[in-house]
Amino acid sequence: MTDAVTRFTELALSPALLDALAANNFVEMTPVQSAALPLMLRGSDVIAQAKTGSGKTLAFALALAQQLDTDSLAPQALVLCPTRELADQVADVIRSTVSRLGNVRVQTLCGGMPMGAQISALKHGAHVIVGTPGRIMDHILKRRLALGELKTLVLDEADRMLDMGFADEMDVIIEHTPTLRQTLLFSATYPASVKQMSARVQRQPHSVVVETLH
Ligand code: ADP
Ligand code: MG
């Protein structure tokens, strides 16, 4: 391909998102970003396999940010992560990505954290939810979190989530999301369990496999 997109400015991103990228000195896309972002920004489901450190977080942060309606405080994007540490890192990347979009609330919901603060935050509302499957399922089943307005679902480190035994929680959560949604699945490895999850939850996904880091 001679016309591969390699710089963020070549993408169909809003000025506010391009401003945030420039402020963070993100100019050239990493290989997984340049392969996956044009597909994700078109609204396609994508399954992306790339090594740790290849820039997958910024890729899905931009994809979900582009879909946000800041006027609605119903959750529009949900990112499922295997651990609290990862969820905190992902939430920071999303906050920095959306920093010029106006007032965007990004709420983490992780196990091992106090319930009270999460419950009051959910009453207030959030545009983006990031968290671990057990706690998010709990909030859904107790009717504190409704995902009827969700546009983007991200399964980050899907291989690790499945290894940790979160498949049932993930299925319950996904049952509570609209059928018409964009589902983005990220994984460092591509075992049968990840392929099966993709087949269950994605529609005609485009597969992106990147071997190199930079
Ligand atoms: P992954 O999820 O694929 O393991 P991360 O999303 O955590 O990787 O990104 C790894 C590092 O790469 C982060 O420090 C991030 O800031 C940096 N990074 C991401 N995209 C770019 C880019 N286009 N240019 C420079 N650095 C980037
Ligand atoms: Mg990652």
TrEMBL record:
<comment type="similarity">
    <text>Belongs to the DEAD box helicase family.</text>
</comment>
<feature type="short sequence motif" description="Q motif">
    <location>
        <begin position="6"/>
        <end position="34"/>
    </location>
</feature>
<feature type="domain" description="DEAD-box RNA helicase Q">
    <location>
        <begin position="6"/>
        <end position="34"/>
    </location>
</feature>
<protein>
    <submittedName>
        <fullName>ATP-dependent RNA helicase DbpA</fullName>
    </submittedName>
</protein>
<feature type="domain" description="Helicase ATP-binding">
    <location>
        <begin position="37"/>
        <end position="208"/>
    </location>
</feature>
